[in-house]
Write a structure and sequence with these properties.
Layout (H helix, E strand, L loop, with lengths): L2 H6 L5 H20 L11 H15 L7 E5 L7 H7 L4 E6 L2 H14 L4 E5 L11 E5 L4 H8 L14 E7 L13 E5 L12 E7 L2
Parallel strand pairs: 1-2, 1-4, 2-3, 4-5
Antiparallel strand pairs: 5-7, 6-7
Length: 208
Amino acid sequence: MIAIIQKYFPDLTPQQQQQFAQLQELYIHWNAQINVISRKDIDLLYERHVLHSLGIAKAMAFAPNTHIMDVGCGGGFPGIPLAILFPECHFYLVDSVGKKIKVVNEVAAAIGLKNLQAEHKRAEEVKDKFEFVISRAVTEFPTFYRWVQNKFSKKQFNALPNGILYLKGGDLAEEFKAFQKRVVFYNLSDYFTEEFFETKKVVYMAMQ
C-alpha cells in the first residue's frame, strides 16, 4: 500500500515510512466509528487521500519552521500526510465538526506526530498568522478566500511567497474567474501517473 508513496517520494526516512504505513489500519479503525472517509475510498486510502494530499509538496517544499494551517481538514487531509513529510514544519488543523478533529488527534498521537495540533474551530475564529493556508476542496474558492484572507504572516522565507495552496479537481475556470490573474495551477497529472489525478490540481495564490 505504501509503495505508491515511496514511488513518488523515494527519500523517506524509516520513521516516515513507518508513520505512513500505520495510516491504513488507523483509518480503518476510526472510520468504522466516525465516518471521515467514504467507504469505497478506504481501500484506496494511499492513492486518493495520502498521495493526493502530498500533491501540495510537489508544488511547494516547505522550509523548516514554516507555519501552515489546514482549513476544513476533515479526517486529517491534507494536513497529516504533509506533517509526516515535513517534520520540521508546524501544522495547525481546524474543522467545524468536532468528531473529525477527534480522529485527527487520535491518528496523530498513534503515529507520534509532534508537529501537528488540531482544534474544533472555524477558520474565521483563528487569530494566529501562518505562512501558508492549505485545504482540500472544502468549499467554493471565493468563500474560502474570505475565510482566510487575513491569516497570513508577513515573514517570507519560502521559495514561493506566503499564500494559499488548495487541492481541487475538475473544470475550475468559473470558480476562479475573479482570481485568474493571481492564481497558478499545478496539474497533478504532471507528477502522478494514476488516472485519479487526471483532473486534479494544486491551486496556488500568493497573499502579499
